[in-house]
Structure formats: structure tokens, C-alpha cells
Amino acid sequence: MTTHSLVEVAVSRAVPRNDDGMTLEADEATRLPLVSDHALHERVSELLQGAIRRQWWTLYLDEHDVQLPLIMPVAGYPERPDEPSGEEGTAAQVLASRLSEIVEYVGAAKVVFVWERPGDAVSTTADRAWARALGEACRAESVAVRAQFIVHDDGARWFALDDYA
């Protein structure tokens, strides 16, 4: 598994709105902190309105919880996070290592994971395994995970630590 085969820069599928319901311009979005869980959930829901295919998205936040102008999807990631990935460790460990490099490069303080997959809002065994393994691998790499979400057929839901720990 290589970074090139996993990561592609994304163009969002929806345009976020500001408090007035007007289109939120990218430069405005990079000034509005997402300090509450509700605000973060709204942003994810605006960006990713429903599942299209199985993929995992990463959003990056600065030290003030302002979203950086980078959203990255990973399609085609392994079915299991414990799948060996060469000498570097498991799939989850390799992804966490790459995330550590990206976080440092873009100056992010935290990441947000969004697990997109067709189906209902109930988490699957695979959802829980990936959320748990990647969260643990990120902790080992000193990558702070602010939150995780599941984007399903009907929208986005908060993926609480209690759901996968």
C-alpha cells in the first residue's frame, strides 16, 4: 500500500452554508472555528451529505479548531485495519504514519475522520474495527483525533468513542 494509491485530493461534493443559509466561501470557512461538537457535525453534514461509496475522509483542524483548506478521501483502503502492510506494520499503522507526516506538513493540530459507506446509520463491525485501530495508531504517532463520523445513506452521524472503543 502506498500513499499515492490511497490518497487523492478531493473537491467537496457540497458547499457549506453560513449562519444566514448563504454559501460559505472557502476563505470564510477557514476563519470560523468549529469549537463545538454540533458545529463540527454540521460542517461534516454539509460537506458530505450522504454515502456514495466506501471511502474514508480526513479533515484537518488548526489549534483553534478552524478547518484547514484540505479535505482528503482515501478510497480502496484495506477491508481490515490489522491487514499487514509490508515492513511498516498494519494498514492502520501505515495510514497513521502517513497522517502524521501530512499533519506536520500542513500545520494541523487535529484531524477528523469521516467513514463513508452505503448503508444505514448503525455502525458495522468493520466501522468499529477501523475507527478503533486507526484511533490507536494515531495516538501512537501523536496525531490528535478530534472526532469521527459515519456518513451513510441518509446523512452523517457522530461516531462516539463509546461506539467503537
What does this structure look like?
The chain is α+β, with helices and mostly antiparallel strands and 165 residues long. Helix content is 33%, strand content 21%. The protein is built from 6 helices and 5 strands; from the N terminus they run αααββαβαββα. A hairpin with a 5-residue loop joins β1 and β2 (67-75). α4 crosses α5. Residues 1-17 have low confidence and may be disordered.
Major sheet details: 5 strands, mixed
| Low-pLDDT ranges | 1-17
**What would you say the CATH architecture is?**
3-Layer(aba) Sandwich
* Cα radius of gyration in angstroms: 15 Å
SSE order, as H and E? Answer: HHHEEHEHEEH
Helix amount? 25-40%
The total number of structural domains is 1
Mean pLDDT: 87
Distance between the termini: 26 Å
Instruction: Look at the structure and give the CATH class.
Output: Alpha Beta
DSSP E strands, number: 5
Q: Biggest sheet, strands in spatial order?
A: 2-1-3-4-5
Give the key terms.
single chain, 165 residues, 6 helices, Cytidine Deaminase, domain 2, 5-stranded mixed sheet, 5 strands, 33% helix, globular, disordered N terminus, alpha+beta
Provide a brief overview of the structure.
This protein has 165 residues and is of the alpha+beta class. Helix content is 33%, strand content 21%.
